Structure formats: C-alpha cells, structure tokens
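Hi there. Long-time user, first ticket. I'm pasting a complex I've been working with (about 685 residues overall). I'd like to know whether the download I got is complete or cut off, because the file seemed smaller than I expected. Thanks.
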Amino acid sequence: MAEAADTPMEEGGESTKELEVAPALIAVNPSQQSVVVAVGSDLRVYDLREGCAASLVDESDKSFHKDSIRAIRYGVNGKLLVSAGDDKLVKIWSTDSWHCIGTVSCEKRVSAAAISNDGHYVCFADKFGVVWVVNLEEKDGTFSLVNEKAAPMLSHYCSIITSLEFSPSGCYIVSADRDYKIRVTVMPKRPLNGAHEIHCFCLGHSEFVSCLDFISSPDFQEGYLVSGSGDSTVRLWDIMSGSLLDTCEVGAKAGLIDSIEREEEQFCAVTDLCVVPNSTLIAVAIQSFKGIVLLSCNVSAKSVSFTKVVSITGETFSPTCLGMSSSEDLLWMVMGISKLPGLDCSSLVRVRAMSGFKRISEGEPIMLEDNEMPGGQKLLEKLQGSVSIEESVYVAASEALKKAMSKLLIKKHYSVENRETRKRTRNDKKFKQ
Amino acid sequence: MVDKETKTTLNKTTGLPRKRFYRARAHSNPLSDSHFPIPLFPSQFDYSQHYPHFFPASSENASNKKIQFADIGCGFGGLLVSLSTLFPDTLMIGMEIRDKVTEYVKERILGLRATNPGQYQNVSVVRTNSMKYIPNYFEKGQLTKMFFLFPDPHFKEKNHRRRVISPHLLDEYAYALAVGGIIYTMTDVEELGEWMKGCLEDHPMFETLTEEELKADPVVKLLSSATEEGQKVARNGGQTFRAVYRRITPSQ
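Hi, the file is complete. Here it is re-exported in full:
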C-alpha cells in the first residue's frame, strides 16, 4: 500500500520522519523563455527572456507550497506551469506574469502532474493512485480555473503514480506507476466525467517505472512511448497496441555496473529521461551515475540502441532530473536535495547544461562551464541559491539522494515475522473499538 | 512422510480436500503490497501448468485457447465446479487472495479430475489480488464472463475503496471483457447490492440485461445455488441482491 511506506515503524524501529527528503526537479519552458527548479517547498524561477530572476505572486489567500514539491510541468505552449507536492496543493501559474491563477486542494499528497496539450485541463495524481482533473478556461489569452474542486478521472489501484504524460496528438493520457504498470487511457471529450476507456497496458518492466516521454518523427507524428524504470532498462512501446518494441539495458550496455560501487547489489535505476526534440536521441539519467547515457531510437526499425556515455568530470555531479526546450540545443540537468542531514547548509541544488546534440555525429556533447550558461552567474545564483558548492556537500547530497529515491520508489520487503509484528502494531486498529 | 501428511487432509471416500484443514481469516487486505508471484504480462501466464489436458507440455501444436471466464474472489470454488461441466470447452479461472482457500480449490480441482477422468480439465485457480493485477492475466477483451459473487461488503465509508466493484475498477473490468461480455454480481448485503448496481448503472461501458435475457441465461440460476455463500444464505432464509450487466461500446 502506498501509505504503508510512510508509517514510522522502520526495521530498526526508529522514526524516519526527519529523513524525508525530496530530490530537486527542473523544468524548462518549451521555447526556453524560463527555467524552473523546485527544491523542497521552494520554487525558483529564472526568466531567460528578461534576463532576471522572476518572483512568484500569489494574490489568493492560499499559501505558497509548505512541503516538498514533487512535480513541476510546463504546458506544451509554455503559457502555464503547474507545481504540486506533499502539501497536497496543486498550483497553476501563468508564465507571463508569474501570477498564481489557481490553487487546487487535494486530499492526498500529489506525485505527478501534467497539462493537456490544448491547455484546457490540468491532471494530477495522488498517492493513492487516483488521477484528478481540473478544467481551465481561456479568455482573451488569460487562463482561469473553472472550478477549484478536482474531479477523479482514472485510478491505478493503490499504486503511486510516478509519471503522467499526454500523447503528442492529445488523444491519450499515459500514466506509469510503482507497480511497473503503464496505462494508456483514451482522453475523453469530457474528462470531468472520468476517463473510462483503457486503450491498453504497456507491461514488461519488472520494477517501478520512473519516467515517460514520447519520441516522434515528422512522418510519424503520434510517435512511440519511451519509458525508464528501476529495472535499469529503457523500453520503447507502441501505444496503439501496447506492444513492447525494444528494450535497452542501459545499465549493462553502458558498462556502468562495474564503475558504480556495488554495495547492496544495487541495480542502476533510471531516474529520468528526456527525448532530445527534433532528433532521435534520448538522454538518460541513472541513479548515482556521474553523467548521461545517450540512446538513439530508430523509429522506422522500431528499436532503441546505446549510443554513448557522456561522463561529467571535475565534480560529483549525478543528475536526478533532466529538462530540455524544444527550440534550443541544450540539455538542462539538476542534482539536488531538499534537506541534508548533518550538514550546515539546508539544501543543495546544482544546475548544469550540456549542448551539442544537433551535431552528435561530429563529436561528444559538451558540458557548459558556469559562465557559458544562458543567464550565467545570475541564473545560477537564483536557481542554486549560491554560486560555488563544496565537494563535501556533493558527496553528502548524493548519499542522501540515493536513500530518498529508493524510499520513494522501491517497495519495502519485510520478513514474515516482521510482517506479523507490523500487523499487531497497526495503528488503524485503534478505530475498531 | 510428507505424502502421508498431505493425504490426511483429503476425504478418504471422495478424495476431495476437507474444508476444516483450509480455514482462513475471512478478510484480506487488498491494498497491501503483494508477496506472491504474478505474471508480468498475460502471455507469461503458464497455461500448461493450469490446464495440462488442453496444453500438453510436450505437444508442439498446443491449443490457442484462452481463459474466457474469471470468477473473482472464487472462495471455495463452488461456482467454478458447476460451470466446468456446463461449459466443458471453455477455460475458466478462479482468482482468490487468501492462500489457504486457494490451496483448497486447487486440491478440490485435482481431486475432481482424478475421480472424473476427462472432466474438470477446464478449471483452475490462482492466488492473486485481482484488484491490482487483472491486466497481468488477461488481454484486452479476452473475457466473456466475470463473476463477483458475495464479495467483502466493507461497510465503513473509509473502506469503500477496498470494495471489488468500484467506479475506477470497472474501467479495468471493462478492459478485460469483450464487447458483449457479461459481468455477474451478487450479494446478501442490501447496501452493497445497491452500491454495485449503482456503479454499473453509472458506468458508460455497461448496460443492464433485460428480464428475458436473465431468464434465458443458465448461469444466472447458478449464482445463488452453486456458490457456498449462496447456499449459506438460502439455508438461513436470507435475501440476495443481483446485478448483471453487459459490456458495451461507449457512445461518444
């Protein structure tokens, strides 16, 4: 059960409450007009068009985020941004004025969010696996919420939803969960009445599915679905039939398993992936790996193959979240964590960028130095909080991140006797009198 | 040694398992993470293990039959046993979350197969949480009948999401059922009966069967007469509440 992971009874009996940390997230405006980083409850926006940090304005009496943000997403045209997380609030922002145009309260913590391609619907998933939808209204170019109450649309039965994605045509909504399931649902004409028609399931991953994206080509608009998972594979799917087209063992193919210290025979979970727009490249981030794995997809042959590993040297930087605009040849990467146990600084965010995907045949993509980044020092000051970061902080952060990620996504396994103890000490029994 | 022990759980004259060795708690939490193996996708389900008569391990030209009936929460398997002889060429499966009860049904089927050669080859049982794993067992539109008989009522509103019939789970059942396939529900709890009927009535992919259709369907009579729970209700002179619906193509 989703909530079972949150009960304070650990194997050792100690409380895990204070260890609850969230990895940093990054999102890039589709036309690279702004970049957003979320760390903990903090939402940091840098406006690249204006060349300055943007400050968010919320005129309603509702508060800003009070707890870790777990999802940030731009709409397809970049006019809207949605942020949501553990404080059970979903906030929708206009990216022109950076005003909050609506706040939706959810009964449970929110784990994923997406905006429909036409910008009329915002969908978000809660910890019980229910996907909710709210309707937006557009008048003279400004959006407003029709109703602050969300309607349930579909449900993965009690499994945390890790990713929500609309298909390029907008006809389907794809949801992935911690139970290795990917569900493709027909996006109905009236989503507020629920999305009942399941088009197919994409089954084949043997661990949690962490990320989804679509890859398409000019002559194949609907494209194929790409998914990354805790089983250290990236898979290519045809969502029209639900069939698995190809599997790429990114962990094994990249020869990573040897370079990463194998302490608890940890597999290399894929933490995020990003399809490079207008190309067939897929950038893949792997847990604790200092770099990016590039895969290339052959759309007509329906295959994905390993291309190369781009290592990041000089600092302990293992990206946890990736973002890319559809206009620029720039992959944005973030590594960060909301809380650092046992250190002075409360959080860490490091933002880096990589360029040169358009000319991949001529050479390696290049990591940009801090002063080469769009927005330069000013951007880093806003998004990272500080310009320079000590190496010791990196090391502590990468340790904490590893724990946070596995806590978030990997199901706990209890021994039989441990299960019995947990059953006896269940706290819901109190209500049974 | 081991052989002797297992033999004593079987009835000496009929060769069938004795229920008292398979008592289990009446309730199981469908929300908890599962600790039993499940197929990753439908084609991984081992038909030869469940239906050896139809899928002999050695044979090259194995049958391409697929399971068409699913009894969700089959309990001690009374309905499956009756359906087996009524539809001898249809593969059917019982899905039950309580492992001891599943063991009982497994033994019961093996016993019936041994005492009635050639019969009961089309039924089997699997331990699973069907609220979570229906798509792991069945492809889209594979089933023609689904049964939800005397499910756990979960009276408290807080626990309504544990009910096996709910608006969102019906989406998954509609996915597994072929257009024209039939979903049978029955309970002795009036409140739950109304809930199940209400959920099905409100769902755009199901329509109710007419009285004539219900009368003509031989399976409808079995719902209360063949199931252990139904017999218990009849013994105590209780009431049953039935809702039978057909899977339709939703109107856009």
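A couple of notes from our side: The interface with chain A takes residues 29, 31-33, 35, 40-42, 131-132, 135-136, 140, 161, 167-172, 174-175, 203-205, 250, 252 of chain B (CB under 8 Å). The beta strands of chain B are 67-72, 91-96, 123-127, 143-149, 177-187, 206-208, 241-247.
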